[in-house]
């Protein structure tokens, strides 16, 4: 998962819950429909058996298409499950220790809400990317939005790649595309009947 100087890339996030009998095929259709840089396994469950079975199924899909697969939060499962890295959700707090545990080759990303300070700290201690969000407005009043100004400032001042995620729509993607390296797209497409076609629309918005 690397930054590029041209159009931003898609960072695809799984639903928090899915059926193993169906979802790998939906994922495969999305990866075949448009270029994806990375997939994040973001199951809400803490059941390691369910997580492991999901990781095994998705890894077959991503390896066949040379797409990186990372896991949300569970850094200690990365090596055992043969994954490419981890997406940490506690800002910068776990980045240094996780980088030491997983080594330099693993992808270590950090979700930092809307905090510039956490983002800068995460980058300084070894994060490969920093994620801010929700980038769009949500109905959850307790969740502060990561405003467009944050992405504009980051893209001018900081070299660490930045991911915009949460409550995205194609218009917002178009506005943020000059300032984001990746868009974390998940529920935005999975709630649609044809997720692959929905993902194509987001890819078109990123390119425009």
Q: Categorize the overall geometry.
A: globular
Backbone structural class: alpha/beta
Q: What's the pLDDT, averaged over the residues?
A: 95
Helical residue percent?
A: 25-40%
Element order: H for helix, E for strand: EHEHEHEHEHEHEHEHH
Kindly state the number of beta strands. 8
Largest sheet: 8 strands, parallel, barrel
Quote the beta fraction. Answer: 15-25%
Count, helices: 9
Strand order of the largest sheet: 1-2-3-4-5-6-7-8
pLDDT under 50 segments (min length 5)? none
Strand and helix map with partners:
Blueprint (H helix, E strand, L loop, with lengths): L8 E5 L9 H11 L4 E4 L6 H17 L3 E5 L5 H4 L3 E4 L6 H8 L4 E5 L4 H9 L4 E4 L15 H10 L4 E4 L4 H7 L5 E4 L1 H4 L4 H13 L1
Parallel strand pairs: 1-2, 1-8, 2-3, 3-4, 4-5, 5-6, 6-7, 7-8
Helix pairs in contact: 1-2, 1-9, 7-9
Describe the structure.
With 208 residues, the chain is an alpha/beta fold. It is 40% helix and 17% strand. It contains 9 helices and 8 strands. The protein has helices spanning 23-33, 48-64, 78-81, 95-102, 116-124, 148-157, 170-176, 187-190, 195-207; strands at 9-13, 38-41, 68-72, 85-88, 107-111, 129-132, 162-165, 182-185. An 8-stranded parallel β-barrel has the order 1-2-3-4-5-6-7-8, surrounded by 5 helices. β2, α2 and β3 form a beta-alpha-beta unit. α1 (23-33) runs parallel beside α2 and α1 packs parallel to α9. It is globular and about 40 Å long. Pfam families: TMP-TENI. Pathway: Cofactor biosynthesis; thiamine diphosphate biosynthesis. Keywords: Thiamine biosynthesis. One of its GO terms (biological process) is thiamine biosynthetic process.
């Amino acid at each position: 998962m690397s930054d590029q100087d041209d159009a931003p890339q898609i960072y695809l996030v799984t639903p928090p819950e899915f059926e193993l009998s169906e979802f790998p095929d939906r994922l495969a259709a999305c990866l075949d429909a448009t270029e994806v840089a990375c997939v994040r396994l973001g199951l809400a469950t803490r059941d390691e058996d369910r997580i492991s079975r999901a990781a095994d199924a998705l890894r077959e899909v991503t390896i066949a298409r040379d797409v990186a697969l990372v896991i949300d939060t569970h850094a200690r499962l990365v090596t055992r499950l043969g994954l490419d890295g981890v997406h940490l959700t506690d800002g910068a707090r776990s980045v240094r220790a996780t980088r030491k545990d997983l080594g330099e080759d693993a992808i270590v990303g950090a979700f930092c809400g809307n905090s510039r300070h956490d983002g800068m700290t995460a980058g300084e201690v070894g994060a490969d990317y920093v994620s801010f969000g929700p980038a769009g407005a949500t109905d959850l009043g307790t969740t502060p939005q990561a405003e467009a100004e944050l992405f504009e400032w980051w893209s001018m001042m900081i070299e660490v790649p930045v991911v915009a995620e949460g409550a995205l729509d194609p218009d917002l993607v178009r506005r943020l595309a000059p300032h984001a390296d990746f868009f974390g797209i998940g529920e935005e497409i999975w709630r649609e009947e044809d997720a692959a076609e929905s993902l194509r629309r987001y890819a078109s918005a990123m390119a425009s």
